[in-house]
Design goal:
Layout lengths: L25 H20 L8 H9 L2 H16 L3 H22 L2 H13 L7 H17 L5 H31 L1 E4 L9 H13 L6 E4 L2 H10 L3 H12 L7 H17 L5 H6 L7 H32 L8 H16 L3 H4 L5 H16 L2 E5 L10 E6 L5 E10 L9 E6 L11 E8 L12 H18 L19 H8 L5 H7 L11 H9 L5 H19 L13 H11 L16 H4 L10 H18 L6 H12 L7 H9 L6 H6 L4
Parallel strand pairs: 5-7
Antiparallel strand pairs: 1-2, 3-4, 4-5, 6-7
Helix pairs in contact: 1-2, 1-3, 1-4, 1-5, 4-7, 5-6, 7-11, 9-14, 13-14, 13-21, 16-17, 16-19, 17-18, 18-24, 21-22, 25-26
C-alpha cells in the first residue's frame, strides 16, 4: 500500500491527491517526511567539503520538500475542514514538529557552516538575493537558540515543544466552543431580522437537524448581523455573551503558561522580554515604537468612540428605550444611526453584493493593475466540495499559479478569514509555481439563492485576495523568501492596500448587481457607501487597538517581573484596559481567551499591531495612485508589482517600501482614512 501523501503527486497542477488522502495517512507520512529531512540535514552538516552557499543554504532550501508538502495538506485541512481524528493528530504532531525544527536549528555543525558563510561576508561572492537569504537563515538559527549550550539549549527545546502543544490546545478549545453553541430561534424570535439572515439561519438549522427553526451560530457572519438587526435585547445579550466567552472556561491557564514560557524563551536569547525579541527584526523594531503608534491612534479613536456612544444613547432614548448602552446594543443602534446619517442599511446593500460577483471584482482589479487573468477550472478534487479553483495567467498568458477559494462557513472550519499556501513559488525545482488558498466564513445563501455579502465581508474577500496575489505573483529564486514570507508588520500591506480598490466607485458600479433583478447598485447608494466609510470608526479602532495593546503589554513582561506571585492573565487584561480607559460599551475585538492570532500559535504574538503598522503604509501607498490621478495608473502599478507584490522577502521591508514610494509614511494618512484626523 503506498501512502498518497508520499507518492508523487500527479493530479493536475501538481495538486495533492485529495480524494485518496485519508486521516490514517498523516501519522506515517509525517514520520517518514521528518526522518527524510533529518537524513538530508545530516548530510549537509557532515559534508566534508568546505561550506559554500550551494552546499549549505541552498541544500537546506532543497531539504524537507516532502515535509512541506505533507504539512501544507495537513494544516490546510486542520483549519478549514477538521474532525476529531485530525484534531487528535494535530495535538500529537505539533510538539513533534516543534522538536524536529528545533533539532535542525540546534544542529551545531550545521550552524557552524552558516556562521562560516556569514563570517566570510563579501568574499563569498553572493548575489543580493542570496546574501539576503543567508542573513535570514542566520537570524533564524540564532533566534531558535543555536548559540546556546548546555542546560539552556535543552530548556529551549523543551519550551518550544510545550509552546506548540499550548497553541494547538488553545485553538481547539475555541473551535469546540464555537461548534457547541447555537441559538435556536422559533418564528416568534425573528423580530428585526432581514431575509438574508433568516434564510441562512433556516438553512443552518436544517443542517443541524432542526428543520422549520432558525439557528444563529458563533460564526462572525451569523452572529454579527444578528447583533445588528435583532430587536430582542434579551437575545442579543445572550448571543453576545456566548460570543465573547469563547475559550473563557478553558484557555486562561494556557494563556498564562504561554506568556511565561515566551518570556523565558526571550531571556534565554538575551532579550529583556518577548516583545523586544519578537520586534527586533520587524519594521517596528521596538515595543516603544509600537506603543507610540498605537497610542497616537488610541486617543483620537477613544475620543471619537465617546462621541459615538453619546449619539447612540441619545438615539436609544429617543426611541423610548430606557437603557444604559451595553456592548450588545452598540451594533444595533449603530446600524440605525448609519441609516439615519447616510440613508444606508445593510439589508439594503447586501442584495447587491453577491459572492460570485465580488470574486469577479477582485479578479478584474488584478487584471487592470497587473494584467492577470483567471480561468475557472472545473472537476478538480480539492480539500472540500465547496472549494473552487481558478488557474491564474500572467500578463503574457502564461501559467502563474492556481488559486483556490473556500468561502463558506461550516462547523469544521475555524472562524475568521485567512490566506494559505499548498505550494509556494520558487525557482529551484519543478513545479515552482504556487497554489494559494483563500478561506472565508461567509454564510451560504438561503435555499437556491446566491450567497450575499455585507460590505465588510466584501472587504475581507479583497483583503485575503491581496495576500493571495502576494503569493501568486511572487518571483524569487528561494522558497525561504517566497511570497508572503516577509516581516509580519509588512505582510498586511498588500492585503490592506487591495481593500482600497473595492470602494472605487467604478468597481462597485460594474460588479455590485442585485441578486434578483441584476440591476447595478445605484450611483447614489455607492456614494452613500463611500461617505459612510468613516462611520463608527471610533468603535472599530477602539476594539482593535485595545487588542493590540493587551497583546503588547502581556509580552513586555520580563521573565520573573510581573510573574512573581503568579501571573493572572484575566486580571492583567482588565488592568491594561482600565489603564487606557477602555469604554464600557465596547469590548476587545478578540478577548484574550479566544485571541487566536496571538495564542493559537506564534504568528501574531506581540504582533497584532501589525495591521495598523501596515495600514500606515497602505493608506499612504494608495495615495500614490491618487496622486498619479488614476487608481489604475500603469506606472504606479508596475512599481507596486516589482517592489512589493512580486518581491517576496528579497529586500528589507523598509527598502522595499522606499523603492515603491520614495519615502516612508507617517500616521497622517491612516488617521485621515479612518476619519480620525
Ligand atoms: Zn491579512
Amino acid at each position: 500500500m503506498t501512502n498518497p501523501l508520499l507518492a508523487p503527486w500527479d493530479a493536475p497542477f501538481g495538486l495533492p491527491p485529495f480524494e485518496r488522502i485519508g486521516e490514517a495517512h498523516f501519522r506515517p507520512a509525517f514520520a517518514a517526511a521528518m526522518a527524510e529531512q533529518l537524513t538530508e540535514i545530516e548530510a549537509i552538516a557532515n559534508d566534508p567539503v568546505a561550506p559554500d552557499f550551494a552546499n549549505t543554504v541552498e541544500a537546506m532550501e532543497r531539504s524537507g520538500i516532502t515535509l512541506d508538502r505533507v504539512s501544507a495538506v495537513f494544516f490546510n485541512l486542520a483549519s478549514s475542514h477538521t474532525n476529531d481524528e485530525l484534531q487528535a493528530i494535530q495535538r500529537e504532531v505539533a510538539p513533534k514538529l516543534a522538536a524536529h525544527h528545533s533539532a535542525i536549528l540546534m544542529n551545531a555543525r550545521l550552524f557552524a557552516r552558516v556562521q562560516a558563510l556569514v563570517d566570510a561576508g563579501e568574499a563569498s561572492g553572493l548575489d543580493a538575493e542570496q546574501a539576503r537569504v543567508l542573513e535570514l537563515y542566520h537570524r533564524m538559527f540564532v533566534k531558535a537558540g543555536a548559540k546556546l549550550d548546555g542546560d539552556a539549549r535543552e530548556r529551549m527545546t523543551a519550551i518550544m515543544q510545550r509552546l506548540a502543544e499550548l497553541g494547538t490546545a488553545f485553538g481547539q478549545n475555541v473551535l469546540a466552543d464555537e461548534k457547541d453553541w447555537v441559538l435556536v430561534l422559533g418564528e416568534d424570535d425573528l423580530a428585526g431580522l432581514p431575509d438574508f439572515l433568516t434564510g441562512a439561519a433556516a438553512r443552518e438549522a436544517k443542517a443541524r437537524g432542526k428543520p422549520g427553526q432558525y439557528a444563529i451560530t458563533l460564526s462572525r457572519s451569523s452572529i454579527e448581523p444578528f447583533l445588528v438587526f435583532s430587536t430582542r435585547r434579551d437575545l442579543r445579550e445572550t448571543a453576545w455573551r456566548a460570543w465573547t466567552a469563547r475559550g473563557e472556561t478553558t484557555n486562561w491557564p494556557l494563556v498564562e503558561e504561554t506568556v511565561r514560557l515566551r518570556a523565558e524563551r526571550a531571556r534565554l536569547l538575551g532579550f529583556a522580554n518577548f516583545a523586544e525579541f519578537k520586534l527586533h527584526d520587524q519594521m517596528a523594531k521596538t515595543p516603544v515604537a509600537v506603543r507610540d503608534l498605537l497610542m497616537a491612534v488610541w486617543e483620537p479613536a477613544r475620543k471619537r468612540a465617546g462621541e459615538e456612544a453619546e449619539t447612540l444613547a441619545a438615539l436609544a432614548a429617543e426611541e423610548g428605550a430606557n437603557i444604559a448602552l451595553a456592548p450588545w446594543d452598540w451594533r444595533f443602534y449603530a446600524e440605525k444611526q448609519r441609516k439615519r446619517e447616510h440613508d444606508l442599511d445593510e439589508a439594503e446593500t447586501k442584495p447587491y453584493l453577491q459572492l460570485d460577483a465580488i470574486i469577479e471584482a477582485a479578479f478584474s482589479v488584478a487584471n487592470r493593475l497587473f494584467g492577470l487573468s483567471f480561468r475557472a477550472v472545473e472537476g478538480l478534487a480539492l480539500h472540500h466540495p465547496e472549494a473552487r479553483a481558478w488557474e491564474v495567467l500572467g500578463p503574457d498568458g502564461g501559467h502563474l499559479g492556481l488559486f483556490i477559494g473556500d468561502y463558506f462557513a461550516r462547523p469544521s472550519k475555524r472562524s475568521g478569514a485567512w490566506a494559505s499556501g499548498i505550494r509556494c513559488q520558487q525557482k529551484l525545482w519543478a513545479p515552482g509555481r504556487p497554489i494559494i488558498v483563500n478561506t472565508l466564513n461567509i454564510s451560504p445563501g438561503g435555499e437556491g439563492e446566491s450567497a450575499l455579502l455585507t460590505y465588510d465581508d466584501a472587504r475581507t474577500l479583497f483583503h485575503e485576495f491581496g495576500h493571495a496575489l502576494h503569493g501568486l505573483m511572487s518571483d524569487v529564486t528561494y522558497p525561504f523568501i517566497s511570497g508572503t514570507s516577509v516581516a509580519r508588520d509588512f505582510v498586511e500591506l498588500p492585503s490592506q492596500l487591495y481593500e482600497h480598490w473595492l470602494s472605487v466607485p467604478e468597481v462597485l458600479a460594474a460588479h455590485a448587481r442585485h441578486y434578483r433583478t441584476g440591476e447595478a447598485m445605484p450611483a447614489g447608494m455607492i456614494a452613500r457607501l463611500k461617505a459612510a466609510e468613516t462611520f463608527n470608526q471610533g468603535f472599530a479602532t477602539v476594539e482593535y487597538v485595545a487588542c493590540a495593546l493587551v497583546d503588547l503589554e502581556m509580552h513586555v513582561l520580563g521573565d520573573g517581573d510581573g510573574f512573581d506571585g503568579g501571573f493572572d492573565g484575566k486580571a492583567f487584561e482588565a488592568r491594561v484596559l482600565e489603564g487606557i480607559g477602555m469604554p464600557d460599551a465596547i469590548a476587545m475585538r478578540h478577548a484574550t481567551p479566544h485571541f487566536q492570532h496571538v495564542f493559537a500559535g506564534d504568528g501574531y504574538s506581540a504582533g497584532y499591531y501589525s495591521y495598523m503598522w501596515s495600514e500606515m503604509m497602505d493608506a499612504d501607498a494608495f495615495k500614490a495612485f491618487e496622486e498619479a490621478g488614476d487608481v489604475f495608473d500603469a506606472g504606479t502599478a508596475r512599481r507596486l508589482a516589482s517592489s512589493i507584490f512580486s518581491a517576496g522577502g528579497r529586500q528589507d521591508p523598509e527598502e522595499a517600501y522606499l523603492s515603491f514610494r520614495g519615502k516612508l509614511p507617517g500616521v497622517e494618512a491612516l488617521l485621515e482614512g479612518r476619519g480620525l484626523a
